[in-house]
Specification:
Elements (H helix, E strand, L loop, with lengths): L2 H6 L2 H5 L7 H15 L8 H17 L2 H14 L17 H4 L12 H9 L18 E8 H6 L1 E12 L15 E2 L8 E6 L2 E6 L8 E2 L12 E12 L8 E4 L15 E8 L5 E3 L2 E8 L1 H6 L1 E7 L2 E7 L8 E4 L14 E7 L7 H13 L7 H11 L1
Parallel strand pairs: 1-9, 11-15
Antiparallel strand pairs: 2-7, 3-6, 4-5, 8-9, 10-11, 12-13, 14-15
Helix pairs in contact: 3-4, 5-7
Organism: Actinocrispum wychmicini
GO biological process, one term: DNA replication
Protein name: Chaperone protein DnaJ
């Protein structure tokens, strides 16, 4: 891709966001589009696949703070036919065609503009070779597991459709049995220098597209790019105690590197489906157990479920509604050895309807305890204000 191709592309429009979008807004827009356009969701849809690649390319630039800064600066300078006032003769306009023109001229040094273009294409300055290894981009995906899998840990398959090193040419871009040759135009540097009046500029070599290599016989699978989109299945180990919205890093499972560089990382964002009975607070497991009034007032023995069995809990007479009991060691056991507890909250269950016998019993109880005030502090405060 030439510098003009890069600058002419509106990556913000591809993601449907404004140029002032925050990192979180960019990420949210990318995830939404990636899910909608993913090849697995649109089998055989060439248009959706092309849009998926375009969206991935856009986020590959805008999702990297340094690349986004360089992209924004380049579009600010070039996007509206900038650089006015440079060149010869009384402040005439600088012709963008001259910067990306046909003639390749040698020039001394690099300007700041050349550094910007070089940065977009992974090079900074004249001394950096085009063939320098470059690390691949990081990739993020999502997986949903149930509550018990999050607590105990699980192994889940993860199917991805993403760019990967071409298996036919091993990433060289050349048909098997052939090899790329050094670009004669830039002598393998990937950049050419040219002068415009008193200024010197560098730009990616148009013959080799800034790679420093020419592929005469492209690989039939990847078309000379060295990268092809493939579907692959990974086995992901979810560690015990993972929390909702937590990320798991899989080293070098992201996009492939270039020129022998390391692959990027794959980040798996985990979503945990809530449990119908159990909850969680850090490493502790929580549960609310309904009890009757008489169980709290007279005392009782409760059988409470745990993640791996059951425990017996003694409720003393006169236990307050909402009291929390702690059962040691029955919470989340994390990989590093930390163990949480089971927190049991007793909650009085109030019957919606009473039969005649139960109603009579409660009325008798109310008469027997008529002299007792369950809220003496409130009564005292009310008496002070009305006295």
């Amino acid at each position: 891709m030439s510098a003009r191709d890069w600058i002419d592309k509106d990556f913000y429009r591809e993601l449907g966001v404004s140029s002032s979008a925050t990192d979180d807004e960019l990420k949210k827009a990318y995830r939404k589009l990636a899910r909608e356009l993913h090849p697995d969701a649109n089998p055989g849809n060439a248009e959706a696949e092309a849009r998926f690649k375009a969206v991935s390319e856009a986020y590959g630039v805008l999702g990297d703070p340094e690349k986004r800064k360089q992209y924004d600066e380049a579009r600010r300078l070039f996007g509206t036919g900038g650089l006015r006032g440079f060149g010869g003769g009384g402040g005439g306009n600088f012709d963008m065609g001259d910067l990306f023109g046909n003639a390749n001229q040698a020039g001394g040094g690099f300007s700041g503009l050349g550094d910007i273009l070089g940065g977009l294409f992974g090079r900074r300055g004249q001394g950096t070779a085009a063939g320098r290894p470059r690390r691949g981009a990081d990739v993020e995906t999502e997986v949903r597991i149930d509550f018990l899998e999050a607590v105990k840990g699980a192994t889940v398959p993860l199917r991805l459709s993403s760019p990967s090193t071409c298996g036919t040419c091993a990433g060289s871009g050349a048909r098997p049995g052939t090899s790329p040759r050094t670009c004669p135009t830039c002598n393998g540097a990937g950049l050419i220098n040219r002068s415009q009046g008193a200024f010197a500029f560098s730009e990616p070599c148009r013959d080799c597209r800034g790679t420093g290599r020419i592929v005469d016989d492209p690989c039939p699978e990847c078309g000379g790019d060295g990268v092809s989109t493939k579907s692959r299945t990974l086995t992901v180990r979810i560690p015990p105690g993972v929390e909702d919205d937590q990320k798991i890093r899989l080293a070098e499972q992201g996009e492939p590197g270039q020129n022998g560089g390391h692959a990027g990382d794959l980040y798996v964002r985990v979503h945990v489906t809530p449990h119908a009975v159990f909850g969680r607070s850090s490493n502790d497991i929580t549960i609310t157990v309904p009890v009757t009034f008489q169980e709290l007032a007279l005392g009782s023995t409760l059988t409470v479920p745990t993640l791996d069995g059951k425990v017996t809990l003694r409720v003393a007479p006169g236990t307050a509604n909402g009291r929390v009991f702690r059962v040691r060691g029955k919470g989340v056991v994390k990989r590093e050895g930390a163990t949480g507890d089971l927190l049991v909250t007793v909650q009085a269950a109030v019957p919606a309807k009473l039969n005649a016998e139960a109603k009579a019993a409660l009325e008798a109880y109310a008469q027997a305890t008529a002299g007792e005030d369950p809220r003496p502090e409130l009564t005292a405060l009310l008496n002070q204000r009305t006295g």
